[in-house]
Amino acid sequence: MQLLSGNEAIAQGAWEAGARIGVGYPGTPSTETMESFGAKENVYAEWCANEKVAVEVAVGASAAGARVLATMKHVGVNVAADPLYTAAYTGVNGGLVVLAADDPGMHSSQNEQDTRFHAQGAHIPVVEPSDSAEAREYTMQAFEASERFDIPFFVRSTVRVSHAKSPVEVGERVERDLIPYEKDPSKWVMMPAYAKPRRTSLDARIAQVAQWAETSPLNRLELNDTSIGVICAGASYQYVRDALPNASILKLGITWPIATGLIAKLANHVDALYVVEEGSDYLSMQVKATSVTVSEPPAHALPKEGELTPGIIRSAFGLALPEELPTQQDVPGRPPALCAGCPHRLVFKELSRAKCIVTGDIGCYTLGALPPLAGMDSTLDMGASISMAHGFELALAGTEHHPVVAVIGDSTFGHSGFTSLLSTAYNKGAGTICILDNRTTGMTGHQGNPFNGITLQNRPSRELDLEGMVRSLGISDVQVVNPNNMKDVRAAIKGATSRTEELSVIIFRSPCVLLKKVFERQAPYTITSDCRACGVCVTLGCPAIARIEETGEACIDPDQCVGCGQCQAYCGFGAIVRMEGALR
Amino acid sequence: MSVYSDGATTVLLAGVGGQGTILAADLLAKTAISNGLQVKLSEIHGMAQRGGSVTTVVRLGEQVHSMVCDRGSADYLLCFEATEALRNLPFLAQNGKLLVNDVSIKPLPVLTGKASMPKRVHERLGEYNAQLVDANKHAREAGSLKCANVVLLGALAANMPFSMESWEEQIRLKVPPKTIDMNIDAFHRGVQSVASEANRS
Ligand code: SF4
Ligand code: SF4
């Protein structure tokens, strides 16, 4: 018995099922799956530049006869959608399972989306576990079914399955030989002449999966009380068990294609049938399409957004809730913030000062949008910073405008920023691109990427030449700057944004402070009596610097300060000095 | 009255990203499992960890369904920071137990002067019979501020039915070998901090 997260359990299931290759791109809440898979014996695993690449590698490995696991978060499925939709046509050779981890409640994402809509659109069957033990079991079943029905399978998880830990009975790995690859263009070459018959085949294969869904133990009918019947899946199932202990339940472990026969059976057993699901109406639409009558909960509808809890379900059914202590009105918010000593801080500070229009991207540096730095105008998706900056420049051309600057991280640049820059350069775009190269993928927990040359399993690799890549696009205005030095940052931004005819790229290179203890041996800074309470240093948003409420003077918390020295340059009175002798 | 029909005990750990709530929750979960209970533990990763408010839920019992916690439902609210204790008070059950690390970490809006800290914190927490633990002091005495989370775990352990040995066993298995003695010491300081408090009152 092991205490595993849903993510670890999916990795365990894939490993036991004999998957030998794992591919993915890090993204909360999916990341630990590939990390955990890559740490196991007899497997090859890698972080790919993005999710589309990962799925394409996976389809190749499957065609060659290996079982393969691909992992991504929900928004990554959009990136991978192109190969995924066609992979349903080609089908598989070795089993191909894709983990899509959705994030209802948006704990660490820019939107809520339900991967099952993609599954339905792409004709890819979905299994949906509701705890870690099921996560292991369902993943193994998905590999079997993928080979049996000749189709990729999704394992859909949500944050409360991926990041919840519960006991799992683990087993041994079954090694699997490669299934011999045989050349077959009618299966693997999807040009119209071959794709058309594969479409017919796809429908037939899905019909078989639908039949299997009627009898598979992954779908479970729990017939109890005849007054209330509930159809649910995933984490919601656990909440329904708590909130409505007597209800009859159809717990769907396969949420596409849907087991219409089981739904009819439940409908016949109960007076009223409900669908309980989180942040989506996917399941209700599927159930309604079988033409059974779905009722609205008696008290009020379930929310269309965010996460469910047992209490939310009880309240929708008009059941009593426990008494609550009063909410304390005066508790200040505690938004996440760039770390003390984060190498991105001064870039945002200086971009704000220079009143730039800043198109941003996904990563720790998204936090640069929050006050007091407030140094960012937009965040859309991975890679959008550069293409959106190009859009801004196109629309504002011919008008007096603030400098347009795109801000993107090293990993994100590799993910899809590079193609945006390629496109912008080719189309003779203008503007400034800041690549914040902190030598890692910060937000998801410091994974390697093409530009630090660290691979998932620490295999020997190469550190790709970021400057060289940028120059290869014909961009000559490229400089590398230390972002901890205020004067250099200011000069670089001023210079680059004044050369308005050309594209310019500034690479701000300094390692993330969490990566290694970069400042471990440096003494913290402190505020002397020269402080005139001007408040400038506080606008950096360093969590170590505070403004004393009574006097307005600044103070530095020596336990939090990492001694980066970024703040020193901003004090006009020389009041910020290193605490000599006070080594940490 | 509970929203959970599984009868499990709910522990909500609340703190600030980086304080080690996840490690403490993990030790609690493993101790419960070694005592033959079912467990579900739910945590949040990613952006919120960068110094934001974080909560981890551990539910333990003969059987456990839900991995999340509703307002009015936490049997134990273990807070790693005083402001977070106030923020999460509505989650405490009527007869729930409130344990609070007696430190305040100012959030960014307060540091920059855009918001202020709540007033009369001790008094207000006292109204809900909070047990205050000076975990940072105990942790420093044990050897490092970093084991403040294990001090708090000790304070929780003093309230729970598991043997001290089963807690120690899990700590030994989990923390880096060099820090085992320090963490066990920190744990017992946590246990005693609650015991001495109880004697006084
Ligand atoms: S994790 Fe690294 S990159 Fe992210 S905010 Fe902290 S220092 Fe900056
Ligand atoms: S030196 Fe200044 S900016 Fe750097 S961590 Fe310390 S207080 Fe923050």
UniProtKB/TrEMBL annotation, chain A:
Cofactor requirement: [4Fe-4S] cluster
Every 4Fe-4S ferredoxin-type domain range: 522-550, 552-582
Function: Catalyzes the ferredoxin-dependent oxidative decarboxylation of arylpyruvates.
Protein name: Indolepyruvate oxidoreductase subunit IorA
PROSITE patterns attached to this UniProt entry: 4FE4S_FER_1 (PS00198), 4FE4S_FER_2 (PS51379)
GO molecular function, one term: indolepyruvate ferredoxin oxidoreductase activity
Organism: Denitrobacterium detoxificans
Keyword Electron transport: yes
TrEMBL record, chain B:
Coiled-coil portions: none
GO molecular function: oxidoreductase activity, acting on the aldehyde or oxo group of donors
InterPro entries with a match to the protein in the record: IorB_Oxidoreductase, Pyrv/ketoisovalerate_OxRed_cat, Pyrv_flavodox_OxRed_cen
SUPFAM superfamilies: Pyruvate-ferredoxin oxidoreductase, PFOR, domain III (SSF53323)
Keyword annotations from UniProtKB, A to Z: Oxidoreductase, Pyruvate
Domain Pyruvate/ketoisovalerate oxidoreductase catalytic: from-to ranges: 17-192
Name of protein: Indolepyruvate ferredoxin oxidoreductase beta subunit
Organism: Denitrobacterium detoxificans
